[in-house]
Amino acid sequence: MKQNTLSKSERLKSKKDIEEIFSDNKSFVSSDKKILLLYKIVKQEGIKPELKFAVTVPKKSGSAVWRNRIKRLIREAYRTNKFILLSDMTSAGAVLKLVFIPFQLNQKKNKKVSLDQVLPGVLELLMKIKEKVLLI
């Protein structure tokens, strides 16, 4: 499998799974407080290690065009840096479900958002979740 792709099987689409993650209340916030990461780690015998993720942006953040741009940028930052987690996921033998939410990013404060603004927060959160996965 190619390393920097984002296949359909890696996307978290089930409403039940997403609600489960939101109800667990396990989260990390980037140091610049721009991105929030909700996560759930499922560890069971005989389960194939998986990494699934989703991006949600609240409607109050801005217009549909702006929200879609933020989602694309977070997806791109994740796609190019997910290798940080992939190697540890196979050794941990767990299913990791992630939901990224822009925390203090909104259209009023940030009219034009670039990958340079989103990337450091996503990288920091991936490193934090990597440490958490290694502890399991």
Number of helices: 4
Number of strands: 4
Rg of Cα set: 15 Å
SSE ordering: HEEEHHEH
How much helical structure, as a percent, in the residues?
A: 40-55%
Characteristic terms for this protein:
single chain; 136 residues; alpha+beta; Ribosomal Protein S5, domain 2; 4 helices; globular
Give an account of the 3D structure.
- This protein is of the alpha+beta class and 136 residues long.
- It contains 4 helices and 4 strands; from the N terminus they run αβββααβα.
- The chain has helices spanning 15-24, 64-81, 83-92, 115-135; strands at 27-29, 35-42, 50-55, 95-102.
- Helix 2 (64-81) crosses helix 4 and helix 3 packs parallel to helix 4.
- The mean pLDDT is 89.
Topology:
Layout: H1 15-24, E1 27-29, E2 35-42, E3 50-55, H2 64-81, H3 83-92, E4 95-102, H4 115-135
Parallel strand pairs: 3-4
Antiparallel strand pairs: 1-2, 2-4
Helix pairs in contact: 2-4, 3-4
Brief synopsis:
The chain is an alpha+beta fold and about 140 residues long.
